[in-house]
Design a protein that fits this description.
heterodimer; A: alpha+beta; eight-stranded antiparallel beta sheet; B: alpha+beta; five-stranded mixed beta sheet; globular
């Protein structure tokens, strides 16, 4: 199997999983901040790694990355990335203040990790539900740094399989506040096949 | 001055005057080679320690072992002398902390160790390094004098 040649049907299936997962995440976020949260239908793409850095605004652009290990019927990793403006916007919503140039405190890092956790868990739950697989994720680990440096972690993991990455972009909206989150799903090679099989996308 | 950008799993060589740069090194390692006499530089942005570990190894610039070999060859082709070449290393950090024993998360360390081992095999001395830690780096090799600029977010900029 060559993941560089994934078909349209798979992208549709992954988009639907992303849609349900993001929907659950939006609901969870909404109940935390006690405000209505809208979301856009997620973009699902398979990109070259160089393109991923460009989507995020370049390799040197500061971003917040929240990283998880995934275990169970399939193994791999999940990375949730927020650009710095989105991270600040999210923190301002969570802490009900308006600090546009905030430095990131330990409390902020912890809050961002938790939001990443909610989003990744929502996504994994929807994947688990639709594919009938048992899936668990680790506790989150967060870093705020250059996009290229953060991305090097999943890039290296993906480097074992190919130079492409599965990319899901979701936008949350509260009033005029727009938070753009990017989720990367990185299954190990054997797990990728298991996942496709369980989703009924390919017959192996 | 001419600026040559090196992407992830990529490499480039050039004569002075030129700056060769690579952005946002995390667990990857930037291997900068320089011939001071002929003013020729080379830079590789490697992702993994060894091309022998995995099947998908057609991109030689991705691995410490194969990238160094190609970098030296290319430098010699444009006039460098192998005996003049020295090396500087940057990157190889651990961006995320985990309690679990996942070898992949130690990849930064392993990339640095593999790069040093390969340079030793070629008899190339490492004259400076800025490796490890838990932060990203952008580097620029100036082919005029061989200085390597290392820029970070929140930790400033230095020349090694």
């Amino acid at each position: 199997m060559d993941i560089n040649n994934l078909n349209i049907m798979l992208l549709d299936v992954l988009k639907e999983i992303g849609n349900i997962g993001s929907g659950n995440a939006a609901t969870a976020l909404s109940s935390i901040i006690n405000k209505k949260i809208d979301m856009n239908v997620p973009q699902v793409k398979i990109l070259d790694f160089d393109e991923v850095a460009n989507v995020l605004g370049g390799a040197e652009k500061p971003v917040a990355g929240i990283y998880f290990e995934m275990n169970g019927d399939i193994k791999g990793n999940i990375m949730f990335i927020l650009d710095i403006d989105s991270a600040r916007c999210l923190l301002n919503l969570l802490f009900k203040n308006n600090n546009e140039s905030r430095e990131f405190t330990d409390m902020d890092m912890s809050a961002l990790s938790e939001v990443g956790n909610i989003l990744a868990a929502s996504y994994i739950n929807s994947l688990s539900m639709l594919s009938n697989m048992v899936l668990k994720i680790s506790v989150p680990s967060i870093a705020i740094d250059m996009a290229g440096a953060i991305l090097s972690v999943p890039a290296i993991q993906f480097g074992y399989i190919s130079d492409k990455v599965l990319f899901i972009e979701t936008q949350f909206k509260e009033g005029n506040n727009l938070v753009t989150g990017n989720l990367f799903l990185i299954p190990e090679l054997d797990s990728f096949e298991t996942m496709l099989k369980k989703l009924g996308v390919v017959e192996i | 001055m001419k600026v040559v950008k090196v992407g992830m799993a990529d490499l480039a060589v050039s004569k002075s005057p030129c700056i060769i740069t690579t952005l946002g090194l995390g667990s990857c390692v930037g291997i900068a080679l320089y011939d001071r006499i002929n003013k020729i530089g080379g830079l590789a942005h490697i992702m993994l320690p060894s091309s022998l570990d995995i099947k998908n190894n057609s991109n030689k610039a991705k691995f410490a072992d194969t990238a160094i070999e190609i970098l030296i060859d290319k430098m010699i082709k444009i006039g460098a002398n192998k005996n003049n070449i020295v090396a500087k290393l940057a990157g190889g950090s651990q961006m995320f902390k985990f309690s679990t024993q996942n070898e992949m998360l130690r990849i930064g360390d392993r990339n640095v160790i593999a790069s040093k081992k390969k340079l030793k095999e070629y008899g190339i001395p490492i004259v400076a390094e800025d490796t490890g830690g838990n932060y990203g780096r952008t580097i620029e090799l100036n082919c005029e004098d061989g200085t390597l600029m290392v820029r970070t977010i929140g930790r400033g900029c230095k020349y090694i």
